[in-house]
Amino acid sequence: MEIINLKAAIPEVFAQRTDIMSDVWLKDLSFEKNMCYLIEANSGTGKSSLCSYVYGYRKDYQGRIFFDEENICELNIKAWVEIRKKHLSLLWQELRLFPELTALENVLLKNKLTGFKKRKQIEEWFDRLGIDDKKNVLVGRMSFGQQQRVALIRALCQPFDFIFVDEPISHLDDSNSQIMAELLKEEVEHQGAGLVATSIGKRMELPYDAVLRL
Amino acid sequence: MKLVWKLLRQHISVPQFAGFFFANLVGMLIVLLGVQFYVDMQSVYNGEDSFMKDDYLIVNKQIGVVTTITGQSNVFTKSEIKDLKKQKFVEKIGAFTPSAFDVSARFDIEGLAKFSTEMFFESVPDEFVDLKTDDWKYDEGDRMIPIILPRNYLDLYNFGFAQSRNIPKLSEGVLGAMKLKISIRGLEQNDEYEGRIVGFSNRLNTILVPERFMLWANEKYAKKKAAEPTRLILQVNNPTDEHITSYLQENNYVTDESKLDASKTTFILRVVIGIVMAIGLIISVLAFYILMLSIYLLVEKNNTKLENLLILGYSPAKVSRPYQWLTVGLNLLVLLLALALLYVIRSIYLHQFQSFFPQLEIPTMWYAVAVGIVLFLIVSIFNIIAVKRKVLSIWNRKES
Fold first, then answer.
1. Is the pTM of this model over 0.80?
2. Are B69 and B244 in contact (CB under 8 A)?
3. Which of B57, B3, B8 shows the shortest CA–CA distance to B320?
4. Domain for residue A7, yes or no?
5. pLDDT tens for residues B27-51?
6. In B, which residues are within 8 Å of A59 by CB distance?
7. Is A79 on the interface with B (CB under 8 A)?
């Protein structure tokens, strides 16, 4: 996958509105590999919706979204499973971790599917992000900030052409945000992928190529 | 898969699955027991007369004091046969042809016993003998004559003769492999033949040979074309039909009443087994329903987990698998346990059977096993599809 292309896409709930002033909605917009995008927005303008649309989780939008030449509406289940395993990673705003599993189990659940990272690498990330002692703690017992770091590690345990991170540092202090940004940058550069981050104010410090208002 | 299972086993309700397990076990056991019992009973009935169907009746005229004194004939006249043919309950009618020559038979069981006896032959049209044509074939001039003996003869030997002399009892199979030496005398001719026993009957109290042999031998040894029949064989559409009894009584004909009763018993037995099996099936269906409800509840309770797994990149097939294995495993366990229980129960009733019918050849359990496997497959396939569909509905919920 080289390009994600939005053609006049807009959430159905906004379709009747005439006051849309956005760099994304109703525009012809492309996300490319090796590029870094920041989407800034107030809450309720559809950041998470955009992520869900691109990830094939929701379809309640008008307009079209393409992966290269392929309209994503026409992808079948098998194709989506492949895309989610090998081409597209998403760090959800609500994280979608399993509270019944430990932090490490949550990460391994993804990594066993993709077989992408070595156990040593994963443990090293836990260490770098300062949650080494939480590896075997149930996610349900961790703070949201700690969970955000676990979710990031999980999101990196797969090959991807694009990674979307939806408000990844909303509950982190500056130093942890910094570490997270470095880790993300390393991995994105290593994979030659495109990055799309969203923010409602607190932005991750990354060398953005473009900043878009939603 | 271990982690997936760790997630998805949450909310599994043991009482619900135990409920399904026992309900399905009972249902399955009843169905299999019905099938096996039917097969086993069938062997008892078939063992009696494999070549005579239940809907055959043998009819003759009553021989009373008056007939003996007056010398009144007990042969069936043509008009009487015609009248019988007209009856609604009759499908086919055939006459017994008696032999018009002398027959004696010698029977030599190597080193054990020798019999020699005067006897007679009778024949019925071949269409009434339900044997493979090869077994019941006779070509004019053949030395080998296929014979059907009354089972009484075998019982007489096994329970009378062999018992009192302490010599081994004979099964039908062993006897079938032995040869009878048969001498036929008539019209200054004296010939030796070999008899091969192809079956035993307790419906026919006569020694039956192929009709073709009989017509040929009557002609050759007695210069007789056709004797008037004293006994008739009827195929009826329903042996339990009351019209048969009343018609026979009106015309002073006799048939073996106990055989009519036996066919009634068989019929009733079939109905009873059918009902029992239907009940078993209903229980199985209800058990299946319980299982489906449990699975649906489980899927509903674990909805978020399943959805998040799908979002992580697990395919619907992979996510469905733990629940599919769970149901298939349970079904398999039910099948194996039901078969084991069936084996135990069967060995108890077969023990009883064998004391009633010592020469009974025990059928295998393959029928029940086959039915069990078919049921298992049907239920499992339904389960697999249902789980998959449920998981797919989770996938599609957000898409549609």
1. no
2. no
3. B8
4. no
5. 999 999 988 888 887 766 654 455 5
6. 398-400
7. no
